[in-house]
Design goal:
The chain has 246 residues and is of the alpha+beta class. The protein contains seven helices and eight strands; from the N terminus they run αββββαβαβαββααα. The radius of gyration is 18 Å and the shape is globular.
Length: 246
């Protein structure tokens, strides 16, 4: 980058980010990694005071800027932001209510994961990067309506249970984590796992990773949270749009 920055932490090669900038950058990063279904998808980022930051309904994930991010109160009422908040935010609110461990929740319709969701199947783990998300992926197999409906949102959140991610049958995915870097690793690993599994099975099948090594890799990723991945992807976005942070 051409301008001086204040590192986010010792040794970090990116600027210190506001929470709103984190949301905007997470959306842009995920858009490049397949979370790119036009205007679809929403992110919630719970703040220490119980409020939530979220992306607006009208903007695609690859055009978001920090000033576009909206703020919701603990009950989901919009209290800041000039754009509209999606009516499907109820799924996120239910997840946060049921899971105190969730700080960030991501919902979108990435292509490869949505293929498996449409098939009502969870993909095997065939290679190392896919094992970053080796925990059980939940499958919510009841498509009764969009998650705009309160009952459907609650049922989907309950079906996800304690899983780190879920396939919503005939719909898309939900990925959760305790920080922005944490959810990024999980979201990238989920789409990678779905893509590679589809390709391997298209060849006629393969040999999935043994459960033990896959689980060990997932536990390692959950311990370190892989902040360097988010930092590297932030640097990529800032190279592409140097004025992104103003």
């Amino acid at each position: 980058m051409s301008r001086a920055v204040t590192p986010a932490r010792p040794g970090a090669l990116m600027p210190r980010l506001s929470p709103a900038a984190e949301v905007a950058l997470l959306a842009r990063v995920l858009h490049r990694d397949g979370y790119d279904d036009h205007l679809a998808g929403h992110i919630t980022y719970q703040q220490p005071d119980g409020t939530f930051l979220t992306n607006p309904l009208e903007l695609a994930w690859d055009e978001l800027r920090p000033e576009d991010i909206a703020t919701l109160d603990a009950d989901g009422r919009q209290i800041a932001g000039c754009w509209t908040v999606t009516p499907a935010i109820g799924l996120h609110l239910e997840l946060h209510r049921l899971r105190p461990d969730i700080t960030v929740a991501v919902h979108n319709h990435p292509t490869w994961a949505t293929v498996w969701a449409a098939a009502h199947r969870t993909p095997p783990i065939y290679e190392q990067t896919s094992s970053f998300l080796a925990e059980e992926i939940a499958l919510y197999a009841e498509y009764e309506s969009t998650v705009i409906d309160a009952n459907s949102a609650r049922a989907a959140a309950e079906a996800i249970g304690t899983a780190p991610a879920a396939l919503l049958a005939n719909h898309g995915v939900v990925v959760v984590g305790d920080s922005i870097p944490h959810v990024l690793v999980r979201a990238v690993a989920l789409e990678r796992r779905c893509k590679v599994a589809w390709q391997v099975e298209a060849l006629g099948g393969g040999m999935p990773l043994p459960r033990g090594p896959a689980r060990a890799m997932a536990e390692l990723q959950d311990q370190i949270r892989h902040p360097n991945l988010f930092e590297a992807m932030v640097r990529r976005e800032l190279r592409a749009d140097p004025a992104l942070l103003g």
